[in-house]
Amino acid sequence: MSYSTLISVEQLQSLMQADPASVVLLDCSHDLFDAQAGQRSYAQGHLPGARFVGMDAPQMSGAKTGQNGRHPLPEREEVVDLMRMLGVDDDTQIVVYDSSQGTHAGRVWWTLRWLGHEAVAVLDGGIQAWKAADGSVTTDVPVVTRHGTFSDRGQKVHAVSFEDVLANVASQEKLVVDARAQDRFRGENETLDPVGGHIPGAVNRFYKLNLKEDGTFKDPDVLARELREHFGGRPAEDLIMQCGSGVSACHNLLALEVAGLGTAPLYVGSWSEWCARKEAPIATGD
Q1: Where in this chain does the record put each Rhodanese domain (predicted)?
Q2: Does one domain contain both 116 and 170?
Q3: Secondary structure letter of residue 68 according to DSSP
């Protein structure tokens, strides 16, 4: 059995006991305000066998131009090379996790699906859930003894460009969904980007609304009901997901799939690209 959305701590423990060679763990811990925080967190303790994959590594984010956002798409071959170096094959079950309730692991999950890898799942609840279940952590860094055969198998998910979203402001053909906190959506308390506000016509769905109090995802039927209501019954293909830099939007994309509602395109540049482009209109308030 393979996992393509979420995997619970219990499911991961069973998989690691039954066939440890079939799974590769990726620690994706990150902090938007401290580029070294993820690496420090990994060094202080991670799941046994986990490799570290940083959000700002060239394999997970492309080169920044000042006009394309904080986490532009990487080159596809860069991600392929990284996965091979980490010992990943085309049939490997990848499990990604972080210390921030899936915020950053979700972007790595999306990126691997962008390359056509089906068997990739986010650890539900992250390292906190692992520890709460008495899962062991280690400071040992695994030694990868072989290169994998991971390959680019085409896109299972899709991205849209700045130009696509700009055209949609006029047409309103698709509903843009912003995953940032409500105050940032309104243009208040902006701490990451030079301009506050949101894309005209967008609606706000703060990604943390996908979670229960313990930091794990809500049940699929609950998510399905909430998301349908939030999006006015629009199907996933009529949505565009965005956030600050194309990271927490992937949390909403994961929630869509957990709920069985399909997937939507991601505006990778998101607000950090939008607010840097002089031709982009900006709205504030609710």
Answers
A1: 19-139, 170-283
A2: no
A3: S
**What is the spatial distance between Cα 182 and Cα 190, in angstroms, rounded to a whole number?**
11
Instruction: Specify the residue for token string 């016509």.
Output: 201
What CATH number is associated with residue 30? 3.40.250.10
Same domain, 186 and 224: yes
Question: Within a domain: residue 118?
Answer: yes
**Facing residues of 24 across strands?**
94
Cα 283 to Cα 16, 188, 197, 202: the distances in Å are: 48, 12, 6, 9
Whether 28 is catalytic: no
Q: What is the pLDDT of residues 208-252, one digit of tens each?
A: 999 999 999 999 999 999 999 999 999 999 999 999 999 999 999
* 97: its two tokens: 């996790």
Residue 142 lies inside a defined structural domain of this protein: no
Cα 58 versus chain centre, distance: 16
Model-wide pTM > 0.85: yes
Q: Hey, is 37 helix, strand or coil?
A: helix
Q: 28, 243, 250, 275: which is the annotated catalytic residue?
A: 243
Q: What is the pLDDT of residues 193-204, one digit of tens each?
A: 999 999 999 999
